[in-house]
Amino acid sequence: MLNSKKIIFIELLxxxxxxxxxxxxxxxxxxxxxxxxxxxFDVLNSKMFNIFDFSFGxxxxxIFFCISGFVFSYTYLNNNYISFKNFFYLRFARLYxxxxxxLLLVTIIQLININLFGGYEIYFMNDIxxxxxxxxxxxxxxxxxxYSFNGPIWSVSVELFLYLxxxxxxxxxxxxxxxxxxxLLLFFIFIxxxxxxxxxxxxxxxxLFFSGTLIFHIFKSALNKYYFLFLSIxxxxxxxxxxxxxxxxxxxxxxxxxxxxxxxxxxxxxxxxFEIFGNMTYASYLTHIPIQLAIILTINLLNLNFGFTLNxxxxxxxxxxxxxxxxxxxxxxxxxxxxxxxxxxxxLVD
Length: 350
Known about the structure:
With about 350 residues, the chain is mainly α. Helix content is about 70%, strand content about 0%.
C-alpha cells in the first residue's frame, strides 16, 4: 500500500507540525509569559510566526489529530483484533512516561521560581488542583482554570479521548469501511458546528481524527491514486479561499504527504533521516516548555549575579533555541522514550 511500515513522509509532516508548535511558543520568552522581558511579543515583527490569519501552534496540533486518525487506521484496521488491555498499555507506554517526567521537571522549576522570585513563568495555574489534572491527564476537558505546568499536554489528553472513541469504533470501521467512517465524520462535523455549550476541543479533535480514518479508507479503495492527489490539492485550495478552513486544510495536507509516500521511493539514508525527524516530535512537544522554563530561570539567576542578558528578538537566538530543542529531543527519544517504551511493552503487553 505504502512504502514501508512507517509512512516516511508522514513522519516528516509530524516533524513540521511539531516545529510549528515550537516556533509559535517562542513567544513565551516575552511578556506576559516571561516576567523579566522588556517587550511584549505583540509589538514585535511577528510575520515569521503568522503567515496566515491563524496561529501556527494550533495548526500544528490539529494536523497531529488528523495524522493520528490515519496512522491508527493504518495500524489497527489492517491487523487482527487487539484487546483493550493491550491497546491501553501500548498508548500508556508511548505517552505517559515522558509526560510524567516533564511534569515533575516543570513542577520543580516553578517551585524554584515562586520561592526565589515570587512568581511563576509562562503558565501560572500551578496549584494542587491543576497538578492533579495534569497527573491524570484530565486537561482540555473544561475542568481547568487555564493553562498550567507543561501546557501543551492538553492536546495529548484530548487525543486519549479520541483513541477511546476509535477503539470502540474499530469493529464497525473494519466491517463497513467508508459506509461507517463517512456518516460518523459527518455526525461529528454537525456536532462541532452547532453550539451545544460543550467542549469544542473534543469535537474538533474528533472531526480531524476521523477525517484521518476516512482518508485511510479512501486511499485504500482508490484505484487511481492521482484522484487522491487531486482531492488533496482541491481541499487545500478551498481551505485557503476566504476564511481559513482548518477542517479542510489538515486532511488536504495529510493526503498530499500520503500521496508523496506512495509515489516517491526514497534512498535508505533519506528515509532514516525522515524517521529520525518523526521520532523527535513527541519529545520536542513535551520538552520545549521545560527547556524554556530552564532558560528563563537560568537568565534570572545570572541576572542577579552577573548582569547577563539575552536578546530573544534576535533571529539567531530563535534558531539556536530550535536546534537546542531538537538536540535534546533526539537524545530524549533515543535514551529515554524508546528504551522505556520497549521495557513497558515487554512487561505489560501480551
